[in-house]
Write a structure and sequence with these properties.
This protein is α+β, with helices and mostly antiparallel strands. The protein folds into 2 domains: 8-96 and 195-206, Ribosomal Protein S4 Delta 41, Chain A, domain 1 (Orthogonal Bundle), CATH 1.10.1050.10; 100-184, RNA-binding S4 domain (Structural Genomics Hypothetical 15.5 Kd Protein In mrcA-pckA Intergenic Region, Chain A), CATH 3.10.290.10. The protein is built from 9 helices and 5 strands, in the order αααααααβββαββα. α4 packs across α5 (88-97), α5 (88-97) packs across α9 (199-206) and α6 packs across α7 (113-121). 32% of the residues are buried.
Length: 208
Amino acid sequence: MARYTDAKCRVCRREGQKLFLKGDRCFTDKCSYERRPYVPGQHGRGRKKISDYAIQLREKQKVRRMYGILEKQFRSYFEQADMQKGVTGTNLLALLEMRLDNVIYRMGFANSRDQARQLVRHGVFQLNGRRVNIPSMQVSQADVITVREESRKIPVIQEAQEVIARRGCPDWLEVDGPNLKGTIKARPVREDIQFPINEQLIVELYSK
């Protein structure tokens, strides 16, 4: 399966929930989900009986699409989470949150995860003083992420900083806005992930 390149707002409508795939636009009245909060397509407004399997599948698809991950990689994250100590669902969400592209988005150095992924691939950021270009890289507690000197005047970086002032930053991260630097204070716990996700449905789906 190739990466989805169609209209992102259709994904939110399909999942019946805002996934904030277009950054600041999702917080305005221009959001397509606000104007058409039903499944896209000819029969989008029709009532359908949903099976337990369909509910589990939609929850998995919602999380996968929110973080911009393909199926094979998502399954790999689940297997890693299952082998770790603790609750599998919580471990899974922590692994997703600790991806480099997601952390950069959470810190406010990008307006969306897609934008964060693109900036990382272009080598805009440094991790502990070393240039990185792998969006899926796992960060750790006490890691420091900075914007490279050569990239500090990029307009999207400045715009994203304005957005984070309205969106806020999670407690497990610390951001020094003027110096374009962020630090991972701790591994995120379940309470730090405010987005409505029922991770147990994903565990049940993969455990069949």
